[in-house]
User: Which sequence fits this backbone?
């Protein structure tokens, strides 16, 4: 596809000059009639100065910027960006074993907006969130298997649910390169079965790795309740941390099966763990007060769009109030929001309101966020989506 040119309205170039990676549709003055979703476009100011290149798409975010200059967006471009991303993870000490689990590309945080790649051992699971990255998937897959002396052997493309529905792209989840190798990946010495074929996201939530380690340090001798457990990550860490008892709750039977498989993989025959398929609110409402002295609330995104923020905040307040009401005196609550549309301040206010509602004395022990392999581009603060609090409840 040849580069086409989008011209911005007067004054609308300022955000790009501050290196923000998005061009909103309202900022555009003119563009070619023959432009297609996924095209690589030149973006120029009202006066015609080149501001960079990006992927065009229909919607409020019209262009996701890939460069701030005239660098060609080709196989060499993707290889270079992937090599830089790999180097960062290696320097962080995340690439330390054959079956390591980590995020290699975190969209704008790795200067590849619209692309997410998680690594599980020798398999890369790739998700496109923009038509442009969808069309570049084969080039990206080839580049993935070329870096680090060909360490990545398999590339699984999983974008059926992540691409804009208006684009009518009909993506197929499939192996682009290689095939099934093993579904076991390692994180901090613990093993997890990862279901990238049918599981949520890329099959595992690597973004909670550091927070799971934090929970392990708080777990010794405690009765732990892991709500919205999915694959049981927090539960496995709590078990290793010496928890007296761990109960994992999720409304999905498939999630409960994954949790039980991961507990068995790390602690075969251990009777401290119980898994329950139940709605979170129903379980919290029915359980006797004081049953647990460490509770994890890690729900799915309550607000995926700004229109849902109000209801989401009410949901966070209600959920946290119920947990704070039921937790034992001296209990510790790990509570999270993964909704990008919810700010840290909004989430904290919702939790504050929940605390006030219960009239219990509560202190913040730690404020949590996403790990270093989910970097935030300093010019794109919207990339800081995961926020959490560790609370001590008297």
Assistant:
């Amino acid at each position: 596809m040849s580069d086409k040119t989008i011209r911005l309205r007067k004054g609308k170039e300022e955000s790009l000059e501050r290196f923000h990676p998005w061009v909103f549709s309202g900022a555009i003055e003119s563009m070619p009639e023959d432009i297609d979703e996924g095209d690589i476009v030149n973006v120029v100011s009202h006066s015609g100065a080149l501001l960079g290149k990006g992927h065009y798409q229909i919607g409020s975010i019209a262009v996701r910027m890939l460069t701030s200059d005239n660098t060609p967006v080709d196989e060499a471009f993707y290889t270079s960006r992937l090599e830089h991303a790999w180097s960062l993870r290696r320097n962080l000490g995340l690439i330390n074993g054959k079956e390591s689990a980590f995020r290699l590309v975190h969209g704008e945080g790795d200067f590849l907006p619209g692309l997410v790649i998680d690594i599980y051992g020798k398999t890369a699971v790739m998700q496109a969130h923009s038509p442009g990255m969808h069309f570049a998937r084969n080039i990206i897959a080839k580049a993935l298997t070329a870096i680090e002396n060909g360490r990545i052997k398999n590339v699984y493309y999983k974008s059926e649910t992540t691409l804009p529905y208006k684009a009518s792209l009909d993506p197929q989840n499939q192996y682009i390169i290689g095939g099934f190798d093993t579904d076991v990946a390692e994180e901090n010495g613990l093993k997890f079965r990862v279901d990238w074929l049918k599981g949520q996201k890329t099959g595992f939530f690597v973004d909670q790795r550091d927070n799971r380690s934090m929970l392990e340090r708080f777990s010794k001798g405690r009765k732990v309740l892991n709500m919205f457990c999915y694959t049981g990550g927090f539960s496995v860490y709590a078990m290793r941390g010496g928890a007296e008892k761990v109960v994992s709750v999720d409304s999905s039977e498939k999630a409960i099966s994954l949790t039980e498989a991961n507990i068995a993989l790390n602690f075969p025959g251990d009777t401290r763990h119980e898994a329950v398929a139940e709605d979170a609110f129903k379980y919290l409402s029915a359980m006797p007060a004081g049953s647990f002295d460490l509770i994890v609330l890690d729900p799915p995104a309550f607000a995926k769009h700004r229109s849902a923020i109000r209801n989401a905040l009410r949901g966070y307040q209600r959920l946290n109030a119920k947990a704070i009401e039921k937790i034992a005196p001296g209990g510790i609550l790990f509570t999270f929001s993964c909704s990008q549309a919810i700010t840290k301040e909004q989430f904290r206010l919702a939790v504050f309101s929940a605390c006030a509602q219960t009239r219990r004395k509560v202190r913040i022990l730690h404020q949590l966020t996403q790990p270093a392999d989910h970097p935030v581009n300093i010019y794109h603060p919207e990339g800081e989506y995961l926020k959490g609090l560790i609370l001590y409840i008297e």
